């Protein structure tokens, strides 16, 4: 089974100088269990493509099916099955690590006990043990990136 199937994905923006084709006809297939890297020079459309695949930006044209859910017809189904860690991260610097993880888990519908279990497991796997009561803003750069990864995995995306 393919986890990601993309055909002809395109995104065009209107700019003062005319249309800008940020993404032109991307075709991509990723099988279940396969790991891929999304590489390219600045301005190649990587971020725009990822924003489309995570339902944050509507494609101009093309189709995408993520974990069996159509990007346009079932964006909620897509979001429930993916974990996305953006380049800039999204954790609140004034909140504790534990509270950020609990909030994310609860937003995805995990019970408090499921959330605690996942948070404990991820803290151990990602080297966040002992940091649960620290403010996100006090973490080192590496610790913050590991927290971002934990936030993307806490709901066990497919």
From TrEMBL:
GO terms for cellular component: plasma membrane. It comes from the Bacteria. It holds the Pfam family ABC_tran. It is found in: Cell membrane. Belongs to the ABC transporter superfamily. This is ABC transporter domain-containing protein. One of its GO terms (biological process) is response to antibiotic. Keywords: Antibiotic resistance, ATP-binding, Nucleotide-binding, Transport. It is a peripheral membrane protein. One of its GO terms (molecular function) is ATP binding. It comes from Streptomyces haneummycinicus. Gene3D superfamilies: P-loop containing nucleotide triphosphate hydrolases. Residues 24-157 form the ABC transporter domain.
């Amino acid at each position: 089974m393919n986890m990601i199937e993309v055909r002809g994905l395109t995104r065009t923006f209107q700019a003062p100088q005319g249309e800008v084709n940020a993404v032109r006809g991307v075709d991509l297939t990723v099988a279940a269990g396969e790991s891929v890297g999304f590489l390219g020079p600045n301005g190649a459309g990587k971020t725009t493509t990822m924003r489309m695949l995570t339902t944050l930006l509507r494609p101009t044209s093309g189709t995408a099916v993520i974990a069996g859910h159509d990007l346009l017809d079932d964006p909620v189904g897509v979001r429930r099955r993916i974990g996305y860690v953006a380049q800039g991260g999204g954790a609140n610097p004034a909140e504790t690590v534990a509270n950020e993880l609990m909030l994310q888990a609860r937003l995805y519908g995990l019970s408090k006990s499921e959330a605690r279990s996942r948070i404990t497991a991820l803290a151990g796997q990602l080297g966040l043990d002992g940091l649960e009561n620290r403010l996100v803003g006090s973490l080192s750069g590496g610790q913050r990136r590991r927290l971002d990864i934990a936030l993307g995995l806490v709901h066990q995306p497919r």
